[in-house]
Amino acid sequence: MDDVLRPLIVVGGSVVSALLLGWATDRLLRKADQRHHETPLWGLLRRARVPYQLLLIAVLLRASYDETRLLTAHDVAVGRALTLVLIGSAAWMAIRIAAAVVETSYTRYATNHRERDPARVRRVRTQVTLIRRVVSAVVGVVAVAAMLLTFPAMRAAGASLLASAGILGIVAGVAAQSTLSNMFAGLQIAFGDMVRIGDTVVVDGEWGTVEEITLTFLTVRTWDERRITMPVSYFTSKPFENWSRGTPQMTGTVFWHVDHSAPLDAMRVKLRDILRECPAWDGRACNLTVTDSTPSTLEVRALVTAKDADDIWTVRVEVREKMMRFLADEHPYALPRVNTADAVPPPRDGLEIAPSDGVPAARRAHAHPPRQPR
């Protein structure tokens, strides 16, 4: 009877104690989160309650398992399994706590600087995201290494592994050259302020917003909701357009092809009227000029401004549409036309050239005098 009750009491007591401690800690974090609404730290720390309870169970069982006198022939295997669970849960909890601290720091910084310097907020967000990924990777590698070192065979092979570390390092570096270059490029992007999460970029002719940056790849969300995934090394080796670099203000152009008789002054007045009614226009500048001419049309360019890339697109499409509607309704002659009739040259020496056959009109009248009325 004692052989049954002892394991049940030890194992059950450890599990129940761990669950009670986890529940009490979660209650304290919940109350702290309700009292301190200005920081999300306590709410984020609650995400670590599962690895925390698992860690408590592993610690209590590891400390009290010898008292159970259960599976004595497999004490080493059970103890090693509990150690592996202990290391894994500790690493899991460390990653969750580090993520909570980093996210809280970023949230507090973004709240204080979002209005004054949004570009710097995006830069800090990019750096924080990559730092969190690096910390997670480092903690994971250390945890796996600690798990492997619990096996005696791994410790015995440590000397030979260290002896061949130089050769293995060279081979791994050559094999993972592209991966390592992308990792270093990711760190360069994060701390070199080349491109940030939320920036508007043009890559390979595609216009979009940077949605995610990792150590190896970068995701751009295009205007039509597509995702373009590219290696981060692309942004360190090839040119690209970053419309959010510096100030987000932008200048855009709108082109029309109109007839030579188009009322340019009326178009300038209409352009100002259109922009005054457009909420996306920031009021910095507007201009309308003739930039080119062909035998049949004039090329007219309107210059408009807006506070960011999204608004400049709205201003351009609205100006283009309303100006064409204005010309079609009030000045239809200003629209481009294709001349299909023969040109009539000016009269010369009192002779007018008829457009039909090129015979002078005076000669035609002499050859065929008008009929006199009866």
Give your account of this protein's structure.
The chain is of the alpha+beta class. It is built from 13 helices and 8 strands. Strands 4-3-2-1-5 form a 5-stranded antiparallel β-sheet. A 3-stranded antiparallel β-sheet has the order 6-8-7, covered by helices on one side. Helix 4 runs antiparallel to helix 5. The protein is elongated and about 125 Å long. The C terminus is likely disordered.
Q: How widely separated are the two ends?
A: 148 Å
Q: Unreliable segments (pLDDT under 50, ≥5 consecutive)?
A: 170-177, 351-374
Mean pLDDT: 76
The number of helical segments is 13
Question: Residue share in helices?
Answer: 55-70%
Taking the sheet with the most strands, its summary is:
5 strands, antiparallel
What is the H-and-E element order?
HHHHHHHHHEEEEHEEHEEHH
Total number of beta strands: 8
Strand order of the largest sheet: 4-3-2-1-5
Morphology call:
elongated
Share of β-strand residues: 5-15%
The structure class reads: alpha+beta
**CA-based gyration radius:** 38 Å
Organism: Streptomyces lusitanus
Domain Mechanosensitive ion channel MscS: 179-245
Region (Disordered): 338-374
Pfam family, one: MS_channel_2nd
